[in-house]
Design goal:
By secondary structure, the chain is of the alpha+beta class. Helices cover about 25% and strands about 10% of the residues. The strands form six sheets. Strands 1-3-2 form a three-stranded antiparallel beta sheet, with no helix packed on it. Strands 5-4-6 form a three-stranded antiparallel beta sheet, covered by helices on one side. A three-stranded antiparallel beta sheet has the order 12-11-13. A hairpin with a 2-residue loop joins β9 and β10. It is globular and about 75 Å long. The two termini are about 25 Å apart.
Length: about 450
């Protein structure tokens, strides 16, 4: 910030002291301004007291006093912090390494020490709803809202897939929303070396846009754990639906135990869970239409193509439903416990994980196939599935040489945007809408 020059009285400066600057103000600096011609260009700058502006030319016109004023705050600073221009693309987590803990390990150890110390003193562990099995009344309407938005999301994406083309790689999990697949060489499939890491594109489905994350449905989350031999006695339903059921949603086909007396624990031991009850058998019928709307399986064939005049409206409703589901899941997970495997994509909604030995990721032999349970994040329960953003879906395919100029967006957001929906502001920095993609010859000239 440039300082404002103020006139200095001749009484404050002694001409006999050459090359030295004196001032009666401790925080004020005096500097000299040389006499220059108006036709001659020069650069102004601050100089210390022992330096002269023009060596060998002690010509002076006058003196100026600079008072340091505080930097003025930019009125746009708050807006730029809330909505940055560009953000980094989501990182790719290595498969040969465990996922990072959402909660710092120091806090986990500190909480474990406190529980152990309280258990040694035979003091009951304080549990608040819903940690003690009691529902939270304020979250029941949110659970119903999330479930309704989940149905709208499935229906909207299934209808938009009749209009917006989606491609998926047959060898890896890459998805692209455009008229043709991109030419970025980042395939990690088994036969990618023979294709020079180019993708093998096939027509995508709704499961490529909405990643199906399933969980075991439990009648009593605080009851007996699911063992490997009894895993077929429990239904597998979407994790979002199971989270809503445990938060208070009543579905007759998927009953859940509603407690009146709280669960009591000392350390890690449950001392009072209200006794074990006979769990109802899993629901196996396929005649109910209410359960079909909760799953993405066969959704593309259930809903016909929409009229061209309704595409923009359906896209906006789908975009709003996606935001409601993501907001609701995040709010429910602040209270209700959801566990995720630190190595694979398995998710379990409940206070502790199950004992099914189906983990086949990094070092699963050392764990006998058991999952490494830790606290789950929103992206593990409701994955965003980021895809490359195509500024011109009908234009030439994206190229690997210009990859650093492209942005990314969740697959649902990209589909809705190409269908005519308004995109929320929080997705625009990652989509890099303000970056002009150069030609291939111009890319090497960009710094």
């Amino acid at each position: 910030m440039l300082s404002k020059p103020l006139a200095l009285s001749s009484a404050l400066w002694d001409p006999s002291q050459k090359g030295e600057h004196t001032s009666v103000f401790p925080s004020i600096m005096v500097f000299k301004r040389p006499q220059v011609s108006a036709l001659r260009s020069y650069t102004r700058g601050f100089k210390s007291g022992h330096e002269r502006l023009h060596k060998g030319r002690p010509i002076m016109l006058g003196n100026l006093l600079c008072a340091n004023q505080g930097p003025k705050k930019d009125v746009t600073t708050r807006k730029q912090e809330a909505y940055p221009q560009n953000v980094d693309l989501p990182p790719m987590l290595p498969k040969k390494k465990k996922k990072p803990y959402p909660i710092p390990i120091k806090k986990l150890k500190q909480a474990a020490r406190e529980d152990k110390k309280r258990a040694e003193m035979n003091i009951e562990k304080p549990l608040d709803p819903p940690k003690n099995g009691i529902l939270v009344p304020d979250l029941i309407p949110i659970a119903y809202e999330v479930l309704d938005a989940w149905k709208v999301l499935i229906k909207g994406v299934a209808q938009l897939l009749h209009v917006i083309p989606v491609y998926a790689c047959s060898e890896c999990s890459e998805v692209h929303v455009a008229q043709t697949g991109h030419h970025i060489q980042n395939c990690l499939g088994r036969t990618s070396s023979s294709r020079r890491s180019f993708h093998s594109w096939v027509k995508g489905s709704i499961t490529d846009v909405i990643v199906p994350i399933e969980s075991y449905h439990l009648y009593d989350p605080f009851g007996r754990r699911i063992k490997h031999d009894t895993r077929f006695e429990y239904d597998r339903i979407p994790a979002v639906v199971e989270l809503c059921i445990q938060a208070g949603v009543e579905i007759p086909e998927y009953p859940s135990r509603r407690r009146i007396r709280p669960v009591r624990m000392i350390g890690k031991k449950v001392i009072d869970r209200g006794g074990f009850v006979v769990e109802p058998k899993p629901w196996r019928s396929t005649n109910s239409s209410s359960l079909v709307d909760l799953d993405t399986y066969g959704a593309y064939g259930r809903f016909p193509p929409p009229p061209s005049s309704d595409v923009a409206r359906i896209a906006q409703e789908t975009m709003d439903a996606y935001e409601i589901v993501r907001w609701g899941v995040e709010k429910l997970m602040r209270k209700y416990t959801v566990k995720a495997c630190g190595y694979c994509s398995e998710v379990h909604v409940g206070p502790w994980g199950h004992n099914v030995k189906l983990c086949g990721e990094f070092k699963h032999q050392w764990r006998d196939g058991k999952h490494g349970w830790q606290d789950a994040t929103v992206d593990e329960v409701f994955p965003a599935n980021y895809v490359w953003h195509a500024q011109d879906p009908k234009g030439p395919p994206l190229r690997g040489a210009l990859k650093r100029f492209y942005g990314k967006a969740p697959a649902v957001v990209e589909v809705c945007m190409q269908a005519g929906a308004q995109i929320p502001v929080k997705y625009k920095p990652m989509m890099r809408l303000d970056i002009v993609v150069p030609e291939s010859e111009e890319a090497r000239l960009v710094a």
